[in-house]
Specification:
- This protein is of the alpha+beta class.
- Helix 1 packs parallel to helix 3 and helix 13 runs parallel beside helix 15.
- It has 24 helices and 37 strands.
Length: 1001
């Protein structure tokens, strides 16, 4: 059955690539088919990926073929609405295809070393990888243009319409990218095998040493005694072993990159959607409600994170906790066992249930916690039903010193009837206590039950986040100690530093739970009957499922409900986010949880009831807010936004930036990695072509016509020398100047020289850039040009060469830190035929100005250390263009022979590898016709004799010859005789036909 499915998939892939304009049909489709059948289908866990490919590509093929999308010729003149709609559909599918390929790569990486080597040695894999890169790098940008209504160029059309072009591009991707990728993978795998072999030899040696010691010892094995103390020691030993396997243990000084994903994770979220996600799980689906599987599918399961739970202990023998307990702290001196409590004839185990919600193992049995790869420090602060929250604060301090990043406290002070009956609602929706108890005065920091913020501040000052349940009295405001999240000091700073979260509850349909305390705020500073507090409870209040299925104290499982059950889900979310970014500050983790919570899932959302909404594991693991590059060496420091960052230019050196990967930071100091390719655009900015320059009498293409915005000014010939002065658009500060002279050797050979200077205010060699790719002002280019021309009869053979040196300044907060030795050159070979004084045509072959040497230095952030400092790397990117543009041109110019004759200029130039981008070919065509119309003579001749005869009445007879035709030299005193070229020869010095005798002088 699997084989049959693979054949169907391969056929769909082949059809898809063919339908997408033909691209890759020969060079990619067969390889993809072979790779799926021979390699991918043999890997364990590939079934879901293959199924997803098949579904996606079938839809892709259907979309294309249903609208004849492969026929792109109409789109060259501008896509219609149907084209745009289909293009957007295809873009979505291409994105999905990229995601599936990423899953394929992840699956390959999860295999053993020998299997990976076998795959990377497979030509089928290389060709399939290259085919996917062709779709991503060549087909997708073209579809994107259609999706926004832009017409396609002939070059772009050929990329997807020509099988030969597609095959060439696939071969290029294989040569330039895939081969290097494979070699790097193989090298790392071989090194991994060597290290494994070395480690095995070391372990064998140790084992032999142990055997020797065992044979020498005379002591008898100690029998295990069935005592609780011994059990605890054995458990501690196991925990130590688990700690040694911690993600960062032993590699802190060697490993620069942090935030590693969980090994062998699956990028298919459905593989994680076990019974915790469906209603048949005792009616509860809490993991689905918070989108936990989406976080797991990105590789985040809480591995390496330590959490603390202060509660009634736990079932120390439960199988779900094996290997999950980091350490224990008993503040009651009664042992760590959760003895539970009885209510209504049922027994409940509060501490065990809370702990299991976070760290219960994902072993396919029972249930698993939301952060099933994290470990817990269990703090016992009470027995049965009651706990001492002050002991929780003490335990959290100790846990923070042991590496815990978050502490869960599912306990509160219960408001008595006096407090509830005398707490009134203000007009702005906040609350105030108006009772007579002088021990309660929120305005003077006298809180309920005489609690203070100080014991909790000692915890948050260590960086730990406290997650507290909102309380189960169904009142409109949260209970202590969660309320302390809003308390400020005399300077207006949060006493707990923004490191407290309050968690209310929803049921399994996302309805607010009736037992849950709401997000209302007890006001401390009231002005004119309204609350003037800087922060409100709702700022720190989120919701999570409160009806949950978790572990009990008897080795089994049970359902409990309450905000106590909701809080540990948020604690688990913190553990997952900490795995992603171990360097993030606690207050930013809190902001991340609150800002990504889902309000849309709540009917009749009210901030004073629902706070910030239901926590969302998926949204929290995506970039948030403004993305920027760090500029001062720390993730929690200053950043420069990448918004409006771009490079646009006419050099393939600019295109080299598209392969640079950089690390960026979001609003919560989290590091993400992006490719600069989306910010780089290569285009041709020349104002005049080489062939047009030749047709207009220039020896070579001036630098100010190749680069910059020089539009005002001109070239002036003084006879003995020439010079040019130009300024930029709208007085933008650009200017250029050049001076030249021609040296004549005899009558037929000339040597043309010129030197010049360009100043570009905001560009460099015509390239525009801004944002994190900005350069400085006043970038200068000094250049020299030399050319030789030789007259052969009435024709001229010429060769020209230019050389330039450019100095580019840098800008603060740019990735670009410097340029070195930037040089440019151009070449042109031309032949000009002067048939007579009125008709000239010629050919040229040229290599327009291109960068021949130079480097651009970029300093990019590449990773983050555990302490939040950033590792930078310097990229020395060559600007030398490996591919040079080639131009072949032809022109024809006709000068009028008489007043009524037309002036004609026609030029055509084939441009290959435009702007140094391989395969970027095009055609430049120019045509102009100028003809005088003698309107004073009446209706002009049409050229049709019968019509001209009928219109003779509308002509001025003074303008006509005897034959009825308009006089040729109507506006001059010349006779109408045809001078032609009799007795004249072409003179290269004057670029004119002159009498032979004058030429001989």
């Amino acid at each position: 059955m699997r084989k049959f499915k693979n054949i169907i998939l391969a056929g769909a892939m082949a059809t898809t690539l063919t339908a997408c304009g033909g691209g890759g049909a020969g060079g990619g489709a067969g390889a993809v088919q072979d790779f799926i059948e021979k390699d991918l289908s043999n890997l364990s866990g590939s079934e879901s990926i293959i199924s997803s490919y098949s579904s996606l590509l079938t839809g892709f093929n259907s979309t294309i073929s249903s609208g004849n999308f492969a026929s792109l010729s109409a789109i060259m003149t501008g896509p219609n609405e149907e084209d745009i709609t289909k293009a957007n559909t295809l873009l979505t599918m291409l994105d999905q295809a990229e995601s599936l390929w990423a899953q394929t790569l992840t699956l390959i990486e999860s295999q053993d070393a020998d299997t990976r080597l076998e795959i990377y040695n497979s030509d089928d894999y290389k060709n399939a990888h290259a085919a996917l890169l062709y779709l991503k790098n060549h087909v997708k940008p073209i579809i994107q243009k259609v999706a926004i209504g832009e017409k396609l160029s002939l070059t772009e059309y050929n990329k997807v319409a020509s099988d030969k072009k597609a095959e060439d591009l696939i071969k290029e991707e294989k040569s330039n990218t895939v081969d290097a990728y494979v070699e790097d993978k193989k090298a790392k795998i071989n090194q991994e095998k060597l290290l494994a072999e070395s480690k095995k030899n070391e372990e064998d040696t140790k084992e032999e040493e142990k055997q020797d010691i065992k044979e020498d010892t005379k002591e008898e094995d100690t029998k295990e005694e069935d005592t609780k103390e011994e059990d605890t020691e054995e458990e501690d030993t196991k925990n130590e072993d688990t700690k040694e396997e911690d993600l960062w243990k032993g590699v802190e000084d060697k490993k620069k990159f942090v935030g590693n994903t969980t090994p062998n994770f699956s990028s298919d979220k459905t593989t994680y959607e076990t019974q915790e996600y469906f209603a048949y799980n005792n009616g509860f689906k809490e993991h689905k409600q918070v989108n936990a599987s989406s976080a797991y599918a990105k590789g985040w399961t809480g591995k390496g994170s330590i959490i603390a739970v202060a509660d009634t202990g736990y079932d120390t023998d439960h199988s779900e906790y094996s290997g999950q307990i980091h350490s224990t702290i008993d503040k009651t001196n009664t042992g760590m066992d959760d003895i539970g409590y009885t209510s209504g004839g049922n027994k409940y185990y509060h501490g065990s249930h809370v702990l299991g919600t976070i760290v219960a193992k994902k072993d396919g049995d029972g249930m698993h916690g939301v952060a099933f790869d994290s470990q817990a420090i269990v703090i016992k602060i009470g027995n049965g039903r009651s706990v001492d929250t002050a002991l929780a604060a003490e335990g959290f301090k100790e846990a923070a010193d042991s590496g815990a990043v978050v502490g869960n406290l599912s306990a509160n002070s219960r408001y008595d009837s006096d407090f509830r009956n005398n707490t009134k609602k203000l007009s702005d929706g906040t609350y105030v206590y108006e009772g007579t108890n002088n021990l309660i005065d929120y305005s003077n920091n006298k809180f309920y039950n005489q609690q203070t913020t100080e014991i909790w501040k000692a915890v948050t000052d260590k960086g730990m986040i406290i997650v507290n349940s909102a309380g189960n009295q169904g009142v409109d405001y949260a209970a202590n100690p969660g309320f302390f999240a809003t308390v400020v000091d005399a300077e207006g700073n949060l006493v707990l530093g923004g490191k407290m979260l309050i968690v209310g509850a929803v049921d399994h349909n996302n309805n607010f739970a009736g037992y849950s305390n709401k997000a209302g705020h007890l006001c401390m500073d009231i002005v004119d009957g309204k609350c003037n507090d800087k922060y409100k409870v709702s700022d720190f209040y989120v919701l999570a499922p409160g009806n949950t299925y978790s572990t009990d104290g008897e080795g089994g499982y049970q359902v409990l409900m309450g905000t106590s059950m909701a809080a540990p889900i948020v604690t688990g979310q913190i553990a997952i986010l900490h795995q992603m970014w171990p360097h993030m500050k606690g207050e930013n983790l809190v902001k991340l949880v609150t800002s990504t919570a889902n309000k849309d899932a709540i009917s009749n959302y009210d901030v004073n009831i629902h706070g910030q909404g239901i926590v969302d594991f998926d949204k929290a693991t995506e970039p948030q807010g403004v993305i920027g590059i760090p500029v001062d060496g720390r993730v929690d420091g200053s950043t420069s936004s990448i918004d409006n960052s771009y490079v646009s230019g006419s050099s393939s050196a600019v295109a080299s930036l598209s392969n640079v990967k950089i690390m960026v930071i979001d609003d919560f100091d989290r590091d993400y990695y992006i490719n600069l390719g989306t910010n780089v655009v290569v285009n041709d900015k020349r104002k005049i072509s080489d062939i047009d320059s030749m047709m207009n009498g220039h020896s070579y293409l001036p630098y100010n016509q190749m680069f910059g915005s020089y539009t005002q000014g001109g070239q002036y010939d003084l006879g003995y020398m020439n010079f040019g002065v130009f300024t930029g658009d709208n007085g933008n500060g650009d200017y250029s100047a050049n001076v030249g002279k021609t040296f004549w050797i005899g009558n037929n050979f000339g040597l043309h020289t010129s030197v010049g200077h360009l100043n570009e205010q905001d560009t460099w060699l015509g390239n525009n850039s801004d944002g994190i790719l900005a350069v400085g002002d006043n970038n200068t280019t000094n250049y020299g040009q030399i050319g030789a021309s030789y007259q052969i009869g009435n024709n001229v053979l010429s060769i020209d060469y230019s050389k330039g040196y450019t100095d580019i300044n840098t800008n603060t907060n740019s990735l670009i830190t410097g340029f070195n030795d930037v040089e440019t050159e151009s070449y042109k070979l031309a032949y000009e035929i002067h048939k007579d004084k009125h008709n000239t045509f010629g050919w040229s072959f040229s290599l327009p100005s291109h960068i021949t040497s130079g480097t651009m230095d970029l300093e990019v952030a590449e990773s983050v250390n555990l302490d939040g400092t950033i590792n930078y790397s310097t990229i020395n990117s060559t600007l030398k263009q490996s591919t040079k543009e080639k131009n072949i041109g032809f022109f024809y110019s006709h000068k009028p022979t008489h007043d009524m004759d037309a002036s004609i200029n026609f030029s055509v130039e084939h441009r290959q590898d435009i702007s140094g981008v391989k395969g970027n070919d095009g055609m430049h065509v120019g045509f102009s016709l100028i003809k005088k119309l003698a309107l004073v003579c009446g209706i002009p001749d049409t050229g049709l004799s019968f019509l001209d005869q009928k219109l003779k009445f509308a002509k001025n007879p003074k303008c006509l010859n005897k034959d009825g035709k308009i006089k040729k030299n109507l506006f001059s005193n010349e006779s109408n005789k045809n001078i032609g070229q009799h007795g004249l020869v072409y003179d290269i010095k004057t670029d004119m036909f002159v009498p032979i005798k004058e030429k001989e002088k």
